[in-house]
Amino acid sequence: MDLTLDEHRLISEFRRLNPAEKQEILDFASLLLKRQDEGGTASATRNSCTLDRKEERPETTKEPLFTE
Fold it and tell me: Left if phi > 0, otherwise alpha if psi is -120 to 50, otherwise beta: which for 34?
């Protein structure tokens, strides 16, 4: 597996941490992944808007529409 220099640095810094600090980072990474998974389902509706159904829409009335 080929790693970049930055990836090697991250691994070496992670190995230097004490167990409590390692667990804190792993918990945070887990939280970020959980948010990303939840955001995946929400992102489908993020770029859409809902119509206010209380609003009167002329195309739904029984009267015919007249246009010229």
Answer: alpha
Give residues with Cβ within 8 angstroms of 63, minimum separation 6: none
Predicted confidence (pLDDT) per residue in 10-55, tens digit: 999 999 999 999 999 999 999 999 998 886 655 555 667 766 666 6
Report whether 27 contacts 34 (CB < 8 A).
no
65, 58 contact by CB (below 8 A): yes
Q: Are 29 and 18 in contact (CB under 8 A)?
A: no
Maximum distance among all alpha carbons in the chain?
A: 78
- Token digits for 26? 């792993």
